[in-house]
Amino acid sequence: MTQTTKYKRVLLKLSGEALMGNDPFGINRDTIMQIVSQIKEITDMGVQVGVVVGGGNIFRGVSAQAGSMDRATADYMGMMATVMNALALKDAFESLGVKARVQSALSMQQIAETYARPKAIQYLEEGKVVIFAAGTGNPFFTTDTAAALRGAEMNCDIMMKATNVDGVYNADPKKDPSAVRYQTLTFDEALIKNLKVMDATAFALCRERKLNIVVFGISKEGALKRVILGEDEGTLVHN
Ligand code: UDP
Questions:
Q1: CA-CA distance, 33 to 127, in Å (whole number)?
Q2: Domains of the chain: residue spans and CATH
Q3: Strand ranges inside 128-234, DSSP E
Q4: Closest CA to ligand 1's atom 23
Q5: Which DSSP symbol is given to 234?
Q6: Is the confidence at residue 144, as pLDDT, over 90?
Q7: Distance between CA atoms of 208 and 223, rounded to whole angstroms?
Q8: Where, subcellularly, is it found (predicted)?
Q9: Any atom of ligand 1 within 6 Å of the Cβ of 234
Q10: Is 177 labeled as ligand-binding?
Q11: Which residues pair with 14 in a beta bridge?
């Protein structure tokens, strides 16, 4: 029996850190396989999935490693880091028999297609996972903003922001055991309470495009599927 899903087309934002597992940097193969298996669960249910992957596990334009470098140059390095993660994700999907394509916002035709909206939509309709690499293709932005942009362009039903915490809390749950998770929040409430859901540019774009956001924990087994089924998982930020 096929289960009814709350969302048909989703944009999943995976930070680079989500791929590190317990390693200090880089890509942890077991972690990436755990994440990709969770995504397979929802593609098997007929959900169309676009993924925007970050690069913070390898390089961040504003990091200490970037030091006194020219910011734009450092940001291009950060974008290239996201391409490495995208290739690792594609490889992991294929190892599980899930068809996946990488589309990069920066042209590097030997290793990835260049981003093209109609082609990306076609892939989603064909049930292929589309991994959007190289962020927005512009320095001074983040992959959160790239996720909001691609989510809006792909007419996704929801932006799913995967984090290390299983939702948005009224205090840091790692420091305060009495911290409470919000089940839902409006965009206005998140702003008034100064809750960090996504960076400000991404948040504003999602709000303007009426693209609701779910913040949830990707390391929690089955969490992605639970969000897709509309169960009480993570925090839904809505208009
Ligand atoms: N980046 C950029 N433009 C974009 C997206 C990313 O310049 O549109 C660069 C920026 O240097 C950023 C790095 O790529 O620090 C990695 O992206 P991000 O920090 O968003 O990754 P995450 O925190 O999700 O791992």
A1: 19
A2: 9-237 (3.40.1160.10)
A3: 129-133, 158-163, 184-186, 213-217
A4: 56
A5: S
A6: yes
A7: 27
A8: Cytoplasm
A9: no
A10: no
A11: 53, 162
